[in-house]
Amino acid sequence: MKSYIGHHQVATDTDYLELALGTPLELWLGEEGESAEERAARLDAAHDILADDPELIDRVTRIAAEAIETHAPVLLNSIRSLPRPARSKGGSTSKAVAA
Fold first, then answer.
1. How far is CA 20 from CA 14, 30, 56, 77, in A?
2. For residues 42 and 27, is the Cβ–Cβ distance under 8 A?
3. How many whole angstroms separate alpha carbon 99 and alpha carbon 71?
4. Structure pTM?
5. Is there a contact between 60 and 86 (Cβ–Cβ < 8 Å)?
6. Reduced to 3 states, what is the DSSP secondary structure of residue 89?
7. CB neighbours of 60 closer than 8 A, spacing ≥ 6?
8. Cα Rg for the chain, rounded, in angstroms?
9. Tens place of pLDDT for every residue, the chain, 99 residues?
């Protein structure tokens, strides 16, 4: 079964997010290996988009909340299965010093 948003076919979760936001995800998340100059230009463009469309923040927040709600069981199970760091026998290494 094919999904569409408007006239655009949605093939992946990324397609859905990009169509819902109206911008490519790389604008917000960056790309691996981008230079400091590229990052600055990307953030300037993102700032301009948010200035032009203040309601975008609300849409992004709603999408993020819906994604967390939908995928919370999977995310929580993934976190629980991660190995825990070993604890030292001497207790905490960051004890407060009384003055």
1. 10, 18, 10, 27
2. yes
3. 47
4. 0.50
5. no
6. coil
7. 21, 28
8. 21
9. 677 767 777 788 788 778 777 888 888 888 899 999 999 999 999 889 888 888 888 887 887 788 778 877 766 666 566 566 666 565 555 555 555
